[in-house]
Design brief:
The protein is mostly helical. Helix content is about 85%, strand content about 0%.
């Protein structure tokens, strides 16, 4: 095999990767429902497979999973939305008292002077605007509703996600079998082994990470409620959701909960309780939740996690942020196999540096 033939396969692979990236960039505006549908189908496939072992048809199993997830989502919406509205309303009503405390107690100690604050007028103004929040929202949504293209795109995306999920979930096993049938017979066993390992790692990682986020969100919300924060539910759940990025969850939680606690109490001592809640959460996450629910199969370094999320967002926007970690987890499996192949190759063990034009062997061996 001459040099041109040796470089032919890598060149074709590189060209295919560039073409794929270029195509994804062109199709990015319409990819969201298909990406989310594929992700939901991937997560729901093990459940439907289990239902099939109970003598349910594939279509019946998919319908049952849809009904279950739809019911849970609707119930959570009906329960949490009124609570969130009430908590935000309380925070808004307490803002004038916080500003008065800031003016009379904090700023004078820092040597900062502030014009006199008319608390009564401010309170009336906030109450009036808060009561008109629905009208303000309607005015903001109005231009969007009058934009036919934007509304049509939003409606299509919202409609396509469940449709794409349903059909992909129903035909998931058939699609996987067809992909396997199209693989070259010589490499099909190895590809199957790699795909099975990626599937195992990816499934365990996604499921475990979702459970960690849910556990931390519940823990933060409960802890903040116990220390008396009115906005405990909103801040706790938000900190849990962003906890898949290392250190971002507690940072977001401490900052937002600290500000909300200051507005609510106008005291510094409760901030210690807020810090204790997130401190306990971090200890539980590192010592128990992540080792137990996620484990060490993925082995992604925190820096790699941050880079994967930021790179995904830079390349593909919000969809890239959501897919950055799963793609990085899958690539970690493939890179470990490539590393093992490299360490066991003759190039690694017996490379002739003089023939490669790199001069003497840098190891100093003859």
């Amino acid at each position: 095999m001459n040099l041109s033939q040796a470089w032919m396969k890598p060149a074709v692979l590189l060209l295919a990767l560039v073409a794929t990236y270029w195509g994804l960039q062109l199709l990015a505006p319409i990819l969201m429902p298909f990406v989310f549908g594929a992700a939901l189908a991937y997560l729901g496939d093990p459940i439907v497979d289990r239902l099939e072992t109970w003598k349910l048809s594939r279509t019946a199993g998919v319908c049952l999973v849809f009904a279950l997830f739809g019911g849970v989502g609707l119930a959570m919406t009906l329960i949490f939305l009124p609570l969130l509205y009430e908590q935000i309303s309380d925070l808004v009503q307490q803002t004038p008292a916080f500003l008065l405390w800031l003016q009379q107690e904090v700023l004078p100690r820092l040597g900062v002077e502030m014009p006199p604050l008319d608390v009564d007028s401010l309170r009336k103004m906030i109450a009036a605007h808060w009561q008109q929040a629905g009208n303000i929202l309607a005015q903001w949504v109005g231009p969007l509703t009058r934009s036919g293209g934007a509304m049509l795109g939003l409606a299509v995306n919202l409609f396509l996600v469940p449709v794409v999920t349903f059909y992909l979930l129903r035909d998931w096993d058939l699609l996987i079998a067809e992909i396997r049938r199209l693989l070259p017979r010589q490499i099909e066993p190895k590809i199957n082994r790699l795909a099975a390992e990626v599937d195992e790692v990816l499934g365990a990682f996604i499921t475990g990470q979702l459970l960690v986020m849910l556990s931390l969100g519940s823990l933060y919300a409960l802890g903040l409620w116990l220390v008396g924060l009115n906005l405990a539910l909103l801040i706790g759940l938000a900190a849990g959701i962003v906890s898949f990025i290392p250190y971002l969850g507690p940072i977001v939680g401490i900052v937002s909960a600290g500000i909300a606690m200051l507005i609510q109490t106008q005291e510094l001592l409760p901030l210690l309780a807020v810090g204790a809640v997130f401190g306990v959460g971090q200890v539980l996450e590192s010592v128990w939740l992540t080792p137990w629910l996620v484990g060490d199969k993925v082995g992604l370094h925190p820096v790699a996690v941050i880079f994967a999320v930021m790179a995904g967002g830079q390349l593909f926007g919000f969809v890239g942020v959501m897919l950055g970690l799963p793609v990085a987890a899958a690539l970690a499996v493939l890179l470990r196999h490539l590393r093992d192949q490299w360490l066991g190759s003759s190039w690694y063990a017996e490379a002739d540096f003089e023939d490669l034009g790199l001069g003497d062997d840098p190891s100093g061996q003859e």
